């Protein structure tokens, strides 16, 4: 198991990483904090101290003000501030620096392989609604740009620095602007994939739904980019259907009916 524990002080946050991926996650977190401190100061916590030994990786950073966007209604001001923060993150790292940043984990090829692994181990007692949506998603996947496990959706787009996690709990609103925390999955990425990560994360709709269309209108996307973004959203919606399926089988971490709602989201995106 991976993950981390967090120790909060008035002006300092200390993350201790655990599990097989702990050392790599700590390095990604520290790299992001250093890059953003140099190229977009104030957007993310300031790096304070790191201990990156494999046996006990730990990263300390400044504590930012604000409340997580997850779990609260997102009005026009918050949506605009969220889009501004995401745009600032994506454009923060100059291309010549970004080219030396490792690719983030969890890209489409990895997700496609993971979905197929989950599909081969599916339990027969999933509800008919969830089973039908998963079957439709898997049929779509077999005919998509991701079918061979290597292709991206469409032509390779310009790369950006991505947070790697679309959870709105990592976006803090202080009443005037949004700042970003949690970079353990960060790295070089595709802007459209990062936008899809935000719109399709369960945290963007299970409580107070993010208006995905309104959010995405705040980015200048071409028709081809919209089409590629749709493919990424479909892939991530399928991933989330499998991730949430244990909730249906007595291991609930989300409100009742979340898996069925995810199934409906996937079907709508595939329509």
Structure, explained:
This protein folds into two domains: 1-63, 2-Layer Sandwich (Phosphorylase Kinase, domain 1); 65-108 and 115-270, Aminoglycoside 3'-phosphotransferase, Chain: A, domain 2 (Alpha-Beta Complex). The chain is built from nine helices and nine strands. It has helices spanning 22-39, 76-92, 95-98, 108-120, 128-142, 191-200, 212-216, 223-248, 258-270, and strands at 3-9, 12-18, 47-51, 58-62, 67-68, 159-162, 171-173, 178-180, 187-190. The strands form three sheets. The chain has a four-stranded antiparallel sheet with strand order 1-2-4-3, covered by helices on one side. The protein has a three-stranded antiparallel sheet with strand order 5-7-8, with helices on one face. A hairpin with a 2-residue loop joins strand 1 and strand 2 (12-18). The radius of gyration is 19 Å and the shape is globular. The model has no long low-confidence stretch (mean pLDDT 93).
